[in-house]
Amino acid sequence: MTEIFWAELKEKLQSMPTEKDHPFRYATLGTVGLETMPRLRTIVIREVSKDLTLTFYTDKRSKKIMHIKENNRVSLLFYDHKNLLQLKVEGIANIVSDEALLREYWKNIHPKSQKDYTTRSAPGSDISNPDNVEYLQEGNHFCMVRVVPYKIEYLKLKRPNHLRISFSREEGDWYGEFLVP
Ligand SMILES: Cc1cc2nc3c(=O)[nH]c(=O)nc-3n(C[C@H](O)[C@H](O)[C@H](O)COP(=O)(O)O)c2cc1C
């Protein structure tokens, strides 16, 4: 009986990269590194594969990359406010290391956006004046992360009963079970 909601969830996630104003375009990424403090930030989901692997871009010097190297279990939170639908994704984050693939993706990024990955100092470094950001003339710190989900929790607020379903991946197949909301 959970299949219909799985189909909805899948369709919602997979339609995201092609729809500009999709409510799931921006996700909250949660990581926990060695200092065990959860850290949250907004990211843009760039790709969603058939098996729901979620790809985002970042700077390889960022704190999130450090956290992922320390602990590759991450969470992604999506919220569609029009439909009062929340998805909580838990997965394993893989930092893409294939240089040829990174170059391929890099070529397709708009030059204005490429700039985001070319600051001379690492993101989060102190700066005396926000107008004085220096950029590399050559090279970049672009990197991609692919999150492979193993659990997705669906929650839709509605009357008379809210709907909460936990989907888990076991040996490649997804199984859903209803939960008390
Ligand atoms: C609308 C919006 C979209 C963002 N998209 C990304 C993104 O796709 N990748 C990214 O690394 N940071 C993105 N950021 C910046 C992050 O939220 C965060 O501030 C930054 O990456 C530093 O995070 P960290 O120090 O925890 O690694 C975005 C911020 C906003 C406000």
What labels would you give this structure?
single chain, 181 residues, alpha+beta, Pnp Oxidase, Chain A, six-stranded antiparallel barrel, 4 helices, binds flavin mononucleotide
Gist?
The chain has 181 residues and is of the alpha+beta class. 18% of the residues lie in helices and 40% in strands. It has helices at 3-14, 63-70, 99-107, 111-114, and strands spanning 26-32, 38-48, 54-59, 73-80, 85-95, 142-156, 163-170, 173-179.
Describe the structure.
The protein contains four helices and eight strands. The chain is of the alpha+beta class. The protein has one domain: Roll (Pnp Oxidase, Chain A). It starts with a helix and ends with a strand. Bound molecules: flavin mononucleotide (FMN). Flavin mononucleotide (FMN) binds next to strand 2, strand 3 and helix 2. The site of flavin mononucleotide has 14 residues, from strand 2, strand 3 and helix 2.
What would CATH call the class? Mainly Beta
CATH fold label: Pnp Oxidase, Chain A
The average pLDDT is 96
Task: Give the helix/strand class.
Answer: alpha+beta
**What is the CATH architecture assignment?**
Roll
How are the strands ordered across the major sheet?
1-2-3-6-5-4
Whole-angstrom Rg: 18 Å
Order of helices and strands: HEEEHEEHHEEE
CATH superfamily: Electron Transport, Fmn-binding Protein, Chain A
Major sheet: 6 strands, antiparallel, barrel
Q: What proportion of the residues form beta strands (DSSP E)?
A: 35-45%
Globally, the shape reads elongated
